[in-house]
Design a protein that fits this description.
Layout: H1 2-46, H2 63-72, H3 74-77, H4 81-97, E1 99-102, H5 110-124, E2 137-141, E3 145-147, E4 152-154, E5 156-159, E6 164-168, H6 169-177, H7 185-199, H8 204-221, H9 224-233, H10 244-257, H11 259-265, H12 267-277
Parallel strand pairs: 1-2, 2-6
Antiparallel strand pairs: 3-4, 5-6
Length: 282
């Protein structure tokens, strides 16, 4: 009789606690799947993520890093207080997640870290998944360096196999500080990183980027006159026509540095790039 009572008690406990928790977990999982499906549908229809910001456990910059970002990054200064907090979080996360290495006795400073991280953050600010998993190491040389991989001198490069992005700091700084000559090493190399990263992933932002790039290439393939105008205008430097990766990276430099001229000369290309990046800045 006592044994039966204990069994009834245990079953009552299961029924009153474990089963409701199990049902609650199943409901949460179903809601999560519905949200994932809806996000894909939303991105497909509107060409942008349903949301991009993270609201919990935001990383913080040191006071020195924040002062550098505030004084030396024009994009950051144009943002609303809410977006500034998100921008800071992403800059801090980039610095925390990547190893910075100085070559040829170059000492990597907070200023260098913030400027590199802010460039990546600006370009990916419209992404829901903004992590560039293709990068884990940032290598900085004082000037143009000799690459042992292809036996040539470089200003910058990305090596997906080693998950490394490399910059000549002199040239990175030139591009960072002169914002209207359509030559920006940081934007160019991070453009490659974004392109390669998206080609290997299937998240919402990669989906939007890849579909946008497909639309961009198809638009040019089907419009011979536009292709001729691109070349004749000399607005994009000749290096753009090396391959599809260089084409996007050069377009991105012009898109960021001289947006008004870009939009005026090639409005369709401008619109497609803006959609690909879900770009939010004026």
């Amino acid at each position: 009789m006592v044994l039966q009572t204990m069994q009834e008690y245990e079953w009552e406990m299961v029924r009153n606690s474990v089963i409701p928790l199990l049902i609650f977990g199943i409901i949460l999982f179903i809601l999560y799947r519905i949200l994932k499906i809806f996000q894909v549908y939303y991105a497909t229809v509107f060409n942008k993520p349903l949301f991009t910001n993270r609201f919990f456990r935001l990383n913080r910059l040191t006071s020195n890093q924040r002062a550098i970002l505030k004084s030396e990054n024009a994009t950051y200064r144009t943002l609303s207080p809410k977006d500034k907090r998100q921008f800071e979080h992403r800059v801090a996360e980039f610095i925390d997640k990547n190893t910075f290495v100085g070559r040829q006795e170059l000492v990597v400073t907070d200023q260098m870290k913030v400027k590199v991280a802010a460039t990546a953050t600006m370009l990916c600010f419209g992404f829901k998944n903004y992590h560039l998993d293709i990068i884990e190491i940032v290598v900085l040389y004082p000037k143009v360096y000799y690459s042992q991989i292809n036996k040539a001198y470089h200003k910058g490069e990305i090596n997906p196999r080693l998950k490394t992005i490399v910059f000549s700091w002199e040239d990175f700084l030139h591009g960072y500080e002169i914002g209207d000559d359509n030559l920006n090493l940081g934007i160019h190399e991070f453009g490659h990183a974004i392109h390669l990263n998206a080609s290997r992933k299937s998240d919402i932002s990669s989906l939007i980027f890849n579909r946008g790039f497909k639309n961009l290439t198809e638009y040019l393939q089907h419009n011979e006159s536009v292709r001729q105008d691109l070349i004749a205008s000399k607005y994009f430097r000749a290096y753009a026509y090396t391959n599809q990766y260089e084409f996007f990276a050069v377009l991105l430099e012009n898109f960021i540095e001289t947006p008004s001229e870009f939009k005026s000369q090639f409005p369709v290309l401008f619109k497609l790039l803006k959609q690909m990046l879900n770009f939010k800045f004026s």
